[in-house]
Amino acid sequence: MGACEFTQRAKGKTAKEAFSAAVEHARYEHGHGGYSGTLAEKGTFVLIQDRTVSTEKEAYAEVDRLMQEGDSRIDDKWGPAGCIRVGDTDTFVFFGWASS
Q1: Dihedral pair phi/psi, residue 20, rounded to 5°
Q2: Are 80 and 44 in contact (CB under 8 A)?
Q3: Cα(45)–Cα(28) distance, rounded to whole angstroms?
Q4: How far apart are CA 60 and CA 95, in angstroms?
Q5: Which of 26, 39, 30 is nearest to 83 (CA)?
Q6: Sheet holding 3-11, edge to edge
Q7: What span, in angstroms and rounded, lies between the C-alpha atoms of 54 and 96?
Q8: φ, ψ for residue 45 (rounded to 5)?
Q9: Which domain holds residue 11?
């Protein structure tokens, strides 16, 4: 079994609400069978608050940086997804590695 990188944007009043919606969407799009290489494989997330990002472009740049550095918070296909909030909006970006 391998692992795939994933990135998924979602909206919600809270990160937890956005995560639940994003996981359900990933399951709808990629199935419930497991090993999809998507957010559907994740049961938890960790909110990354090291830097404040104002735009989605900045959020995706931070995702790239964390993935390239192999940040220990998100560098495990069995561990939590990462989550970055875009400014003070209801937009969250979930990312990481997932089993495939």
Answers
A1: -60, -45
A2: yes
A3: 19
A4: 9
A5: 39
A6: 3-11, 91-99, 81-85, 45-47
A7: 20
A8: -145, 160
A9: 3-99
d(CA 16, CA 65): 23
Give the pLDDT confidence of 27-59 residue by residue, as tens digits.
Answer: 999 988 889 999 999 999 999 999 899 999 999
**C-alpha to C-alpha distance for 95 and 32, rounded to whole angstroms:** 19
Match 């090993």 to its residue by tokens. 35
Reported as a single tens digit per residue, the pLDDT across 49-97 is: 998 999 999 999 999 999 999 999 999 999 999 999 999 999 999 999 9
Tokens, residue 93: 């970006």
